[in-house]
């Protein structure tokens, strides 16, 4: 009896010791798991505003912050973008404040918007300057004609001896030379004013811009897109809607060579901002939300999934698809959503 009781006592003591040992470990693991979940939740819900730090536009350009900047979370879902008001109708440098937030995170940026005066066409300036120079030269050349004095010449022609002793022509020629010397500097002075200061690069119609690169393109479509990029250093539309627009809620598929116009695509990563202008110069900003490598049939090299429709169809909302070759059989595909 005594041995049985001792065994029960020892067994109970062992159970209690084990409980005292493992219970703290269990609670600590639970708390660690909760803290990790909180960290993951906060990370997954981070907010970031994408777009260039400096943008240059002209005074007559229709500017809206949402054309150039997007706020997204880690799943590349759009978040409401708040922005300060600036007057872009007057030339100058304007500070634009952007902000965005969700329940877990907040992001704020200050960017610079440079508004330049609209430049007058060079041909008009040249015509005005040419007219001014011609008019002043004409006036200057007419003036010496009035310098000879006919009565004075008539008095000196009374006798041949007086005519030989008093020459009339040299003073007139000398005065004309002096007048011509005064006229000559007028043209170089006008020519020097034609030199203009270098302009700051800015977005032009039909351009794809990211990481400080400005890549021109043409709206070509499947019928002539390949021929366009083969014939010149330029990108072209191919699949989707062949005419790029940031307002049609459709996909436009762009193609370009690497090495060549689309070599900068290799520097793109998830979350990067791409700004595209249409024929009228209206800009739309897209956020990169996917990069894959496919063969010439659109099959994903890694997963074997067919991406042909995703690449070339017009559906899927306002988005763009950029394509360039990595080798003879492999292509890089960049997906970006507005």
In brief:
This protein is 34% helix and 26% strand. With 338 residues, the chain is an alpha+beta fold.
Kindly name the structural category.
Answer: alpha+beta
Overall shape: it is elongated
For the secondary structure, the number of strands is 15
Strand fraction equals 25-35%
Describe the strand arrangement of the main beta sheet, using strand numbers.
8-9-10-11-14-15-13-12
Which range best describes the helical content: under 10%, 10-25%, 25-40%, 40-55%, 55-70% or over 70%?
Answer: 25-40%
Low-confidence stretches: 138-143, 150-168
Which topology of the largest domain does CATH recognise? Answer: Sortase, Chain: A
Order of helices and strands: HEEHEEEEEHHHHHEEHEEEEHEE
CATH class of the largest domain: Mainly Beta
Q: First CA to last CA: what distance?
A: 82 Å
CATH architecture of the largest domain: Beta Barrel
CATH superfamily of the largest domain: Sortase
Average pLDDT, rounded to a whole number, is 78
Biased composition (Basic and acidic residues): 120-131
GO molecular function, one term: hydrolase activity
Keywords: Hydrolase
Protein name: Sortase
Give a structural overview.
The chain is an alpha+beta fold and 338 residues long. It has three domains: 69 residues, Immunoglobulins (Immunoglobulin-like), CATH 2.60.40.10; 71 residues; 131 residues, Sortase (Sortase, Chain: A, Beta Barrel), CATH 2.40.260.10. The chain is built from nine helices and 15 strands. The chain is elongated. The termini are far apart.
């Amino acid at each position: 009896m005594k041995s049985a009781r001792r065994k029960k006592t020892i067994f109970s003591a062992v159970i209690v010791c084990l409980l005292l040992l493992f219970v703290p470990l269990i609670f600590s693991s639970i708390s660690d798991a909760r803290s990790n979940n909180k960290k993951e939740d906060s990370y997954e819900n981070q907010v970031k505003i994408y777009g260039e730090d400096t943008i240059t536009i002209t005074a007559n350009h229709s500017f809206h912050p949402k054309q150039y900047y997007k706020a997204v979370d880690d799943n590349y879902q759009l978040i409401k973008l708040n922005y300060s008001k600036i007057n872009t109708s007057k030339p100058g440098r304007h500070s634009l404040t952007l902000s965005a937030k969700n329940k877990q995170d907040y992001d704020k940026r200050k960017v610079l918007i440079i508004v330049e005066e609209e430049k007058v066409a060079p041909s008009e300036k040249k015509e005005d300057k040419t007219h001014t120079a011609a008019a002043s030269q004409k006036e200057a050349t007419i003036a010496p004609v009035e310098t000879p004095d006919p009565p004075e010449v008539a008095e000196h022609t009374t006798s041949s001896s007086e005519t030989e002793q008093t020459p009339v022509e040299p003073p007139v020629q000398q005065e004309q030379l002096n007048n011509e010397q005064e006229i000559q500097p007028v043209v170089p002075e006008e020519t020097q004013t034609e030199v203009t200061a270098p302009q700051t690069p800015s977005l032009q119609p039909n351009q794809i811009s990211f990481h400080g690169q400005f890549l021109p393109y043409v709206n070509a479509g499947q019928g002539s897109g390949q021929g366009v990029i083969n014939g010149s250093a330029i990108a072209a539309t191919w699949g989707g809607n062949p005419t790029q627009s940031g307002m049609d809620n459709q996909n436009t598929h762009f193609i370009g060579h690497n090495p060549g116009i689309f070599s900068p695509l290799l520097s793109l990563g998830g979350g990067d901002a791409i700004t595209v202008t249409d024929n009228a110069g209206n800009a739309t900003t897209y956020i990169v939300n996917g990069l894959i490598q496919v063969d010439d049939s659109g099959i994903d090299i890694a997963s074997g999934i067919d991406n042909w429709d995703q690449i070339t169809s017009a559906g899927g909302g306002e988005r763009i698809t950029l394509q360039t070759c990595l080798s003879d059989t492999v292509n890089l595909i960049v997906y970006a959503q507005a």
